[in-house]
Amino acid sequence: MAAVIPETEPPATAMRRTLGVRDGVAIAASSTAATTSIGIGMGVLALYAGRQTPALLIVAFLPILGIALSYARLNRTEPHCGNGYTWVGRSLGAWPGFLTGWVVLVANVVFMAYTSAVTGSVILQFAGKLGLHSLLGVPLDPGSTGVSTVIGLVALVVVTVTAVTGVRSATRLQWVLLVFEYAVLLVFCTWAIVSGDQPFSWSWLDPFAIGSVRSLAQGLVLAVFVFWGWDAAFTVNEETKNASDAARGGLIALLAMLGLLVFAAIAFQRAMGDGELVAQGPQALTYLGARLAPEPWASLPLAALMCSAFASLQSTVIPTARGALAMGRDQTLGRRWTRIHPRYGSPAAGTVMIMAISAAVAVLAVGIPRINLMILTAVNSIGLIVSLYYGLTALACAVRFRGALREGPLAALRCVLVPGLSALALFGLGAYLAYRYATMSDHFQATPDNGWFLLLIPGLFVLTGLVAAAVAKWRRRSPYFTTGRGTDADTIALPMDRRPA
């Protein structure tokens, strides 16, 4: 006779260690979404950096590389799916640590709500290319926020299912999407470099040729945002066969991202002048495809953009659920975030809840125009959030390993100086961006181009984080706050989801 398990004592299980370096690369590369960044970001970068966009990308990569090395060093000592949330909490204090986890969680939810609508719009554009312009009497208009959101929510459900059924199956799908989109990107960018009529100049790689310090700083903030997402590989370090595989995956994806971005920037500038590139804006990649090839080949960049948006949506669901899992283990969030599926070994409940919250925000954006403005503004000002949590994590590395200053120049450079300088660089960029937002407008207005409104959104992220931290400390009495340490990843018994597999 089978034993009856009491409802108050659920069986414990853990996430399964099935991933390798290749899977980490897939998650990090999909999260950074090179094709999407290239497709919609090159025109914006050119607005500030002009023909020095390749140089801007290289300069912006330097502090990001320092941050990535900090992540790798911390991960080697303490692999934890909460990464920055845990490392900052144990090195700098519970309050900055909780804020690190909170702002990443909220920013990812907002990003998913925004990206689901963008994904729906790209899918509709591709459907139109295939001749499908209506379905059940409903016009499939890519410019319709409502229709795009509905299609995007379907895509969000699909990526959630793949994430719940196991991160390994999700990474396999991401590899298929990555191979296709990178192949298309490389072919068209190579074609543009070979056939372009704009003369190449070595000044394109000279950051000192950028017109002003203001343009350089603003461009750097945007470029740092373009690189955002490689740290997703570190959220699955409790599911990799070796914890160092997560670091290798993230670093490989980051280096590949740099190569693709610089290569694409040169290709775009060989094919288009400054004014033309800026004018095309978010349509730069599809415009390039139409210039170089006839249909149906001209639609391949759009198909690659669709794959990139889909993969980015999926790769955001995965790390967000695992960050919430880490916070749930410390009881800074509810225990429901820690439930592991008995068959798939994934944080299924948290993954579904993340999807539901993102979907609700996306739906609210359709019905309440003010919400839509807030989402767009949050995406525009997310550079502040990225600078904050990347900088805090690098600073945590410098503080934790400060003893390396006595171990020789190389150890001091690797463990303290590079992380510390990278943190200062991002804090400086964030402070500059905040100053720009504070001084660019003389009144408050709820529009995405109003500086005070741009400051309000990240301010709300931090304020809600402080409130949530207070609840975790004084109401939940989380060990993260009361002991100053929280819960170790390998000592917690996670509740198993009782629903049938």
TrEMBL record:
Q: Where are the transmembrane segments?
A: 25-49, 55-74, 94-127, 147-168, 175-196, 216-237, 249-268, 302-325, 346-368, 374-399, 411-432, 452-472
Which InterPro entries does its entry note?
AA/rel_permease1 (IPR002293), APC_superfamily (IPR050367)
The places in or outside the cell where this protein is found are: Cell membrane
Pfam families named in the record: AA_permease_2 (PF13520)
Q: Where is this chain primarily localised?
A: membrane
What are the UniProt keywords, alphabetically? Cell membrane, Membrane, Transmembrane, Transmembrane helix
Name the Gene3D superfamilies for this protein.
Answer: Amino acid/polyamine transporter I (1.20.1740.10)
Q: How does it sit in the membrane?
A: Multi-pass membrane protein
Q: Which domain of life is it from?
A: Bacteria
PANTHER family, per database record: AMINO ACID TRANSPORTER-RELATED (PTHR42770), MEMBRANE PROTEIN (PTHR42770:SF7)
* Name of this chain's protein: APC family permease
Q: What is the lineage of its organism?
A: Bacteria, Bacillati, Actinomycetota, Actinomycetes, Kitasatosporales
